[in-house]
Amino acid sequence: MQRFLDAAQAIMSEKGTTDFTVQEVVDRSRQSLRSFYQHFDGKHELLLALFEDALRRSADQIRAAASGHSDPLDRLKVAVQLLYELSRPDPAAQRPLFTHFAPQLLISHPTEVKVAHAPLLGLFTELMTEAKSADRVRDDLKAHRAAALTMQTVMLVAQANGGSTDEHPHPITADEVWDFCASGFAKN
């Protein structure tokens, strides 16, 4: 299965799009078409597996960055800021899974999106729970709901604020996103 994922990722990096065929992936992976269909029902399922893997890796990257801070609110700040940076469209980075596939998936398969985001939501819930235990956030806070709202806000603002500096001469910064989100859950 990993060979198919690697082949698809290489093709997307070269083309800068998710516009490729199953046959291209099979050829690049040097596997058989039959083998492909033993692992995936089709291209959509392959793209979903790549999307889930990318979100899982993002959660691991955010967890590692946040773990370098002792204060739970600082860990949450690092997580928010890094998620914002990772979610911003970057034409140079060529991340078609996030710029092309994810928005379509959100509309057509919201349940699959929810499953794919589970590692990130789990991490943000954990960080929010730690901050609550340390008395760094509001007492009435429901950690899971606050985590979901924060994560979705960060990702949506990042997507909406992406693009070139010509389109957005004064882009929203990760610090501004943190300040906005923190004003909703942090203690004064």
SSE topology:
Blueprint lengths: L1 H14 L6 H8 L3 H7 L3 H24 L5 H16 L8 H13 L1 H7 L1 H16 L9 H18 L13 H12 L3
Describe this structure in words.
29% of the residues are buried. This protein has 10 helices and no strands. The chain has helices at 2-15, 22-29, 33-39, 43-66, 72-87, 96-108, 110-116, 118-133, 143-160, 174-185. With 188 residues, it is mostly helical. Helix 1 packs across helix 2 (22-29) and helix 4 (43-66) packs parallel to helix 8 (118-133).
User: What percentage of amino acids are in beta strands?
Assistant: under 5%
Spatial shape = elongated
Q: Tell me the radius of gyration.
A: 18 Å
SSE succession: HHHHHHHHHH
How would you characterize the largest beta sheet? none
The count of DSSP E runs of length 2 or more, i.e. the number of strands, is 0
Mean pLDDT: 88
How much helix is in the residues? over 70%
Short description:
With 188 residues, the protein is mostly helical.
Which key phrases capture this entry?
188 residues; mainly alpha; 10 helices; 72% helix; 0% strand; elongated
